[in-house]
Amino acid sequence: MTRRDLISACAAAGAAMGTVFGLKGQAAAPAPAPNGPFTLPALDYPYDALEPYIDAQTMQIHHDKHHKAYVDNLNKAVVNYPELQKMTPDQLMANLPNTPEAVRTAIRNQGGGHANHSLFWKTLAKSSGSTTPKGELAADINKTFGGVPALQDKLSAASIGTFGSGWGWLVVDQGNLKVISLPNQDSPITGGAHPVMGIDVWEHAYYLKYQNRRPEYVKAIWNVWNWDAISERYASLKKA
Ligand code: MN3
Question: For 135-239, CATH number?
Answer without folding.
Answer: 3.55.40.20
